[in-house]
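Raw record, unedited: nicotinamidase
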Amino acid sequence: MAKSIDKSAVVTTAVVSIGPRHTVASFDVDAQNCFTPVCPDELPVPAGNEIVTELNQQAELAQYRLGSKDAHSPHAVWVADQSHPPLSPVKGKNVDVYWPLHAVPGTKGFTLIEGLPEVTAYDFFVWKGVEPDMHPYGACYHDLADTKTTGVIEYLLVNKVKTVLVGGLALDYCVKTTALQLAKANFQVIVNLAACRGIAENSISEALNDMHQAGILLIKSAAQVKNS
Ligand code: VGL
């Protein structure tokens, strides 16, 4: 069954007004087929392919559209096997747990979900986790210690972006981490839950709480946002 996102007290249903002079960016985090039921052997997030309309709608509210993709080696050190099940710990500086192999360039799983723009149509795009011994979650840094920038924060700063609307996959991993990194860098961050799906009930609740605690606004859908 699809993991519906808990509409708990941390989610706002109010209209969010961001003002016409406020520069806004929209961020599609890892909206790739490997995180949808289209690729059942990778990391299928239930209903992960149902986020496209909302991602496109939130992008309509923004002057800039950014995106990220996981881009992994089939020989990565964190690839789960018989003796290393998914989510068991893996030793390494920039890896934490084993995952099923996903997002290998050249495969279907690597591609963006149908209905999203071509990669070249985005204003800024990031490929992450290319090194076989690195598996970052957030799109702002290549390493787990948040020291090697991907350029996302610099791009937003140069373009005087104040607010970032975030959606993508998976809510409880890469979306959460990206949103927290952006909030820490002092952007106003709004996570559009209709543009996200998550892996597991527990980690979804934890992600919503962590983001709320960090001052991130959690909205039900892009229709709540007014910027005029
Ligand atoms: C992701 C788990 C493993 C994500 C990536 O994109 O959220 N989650 N790798």
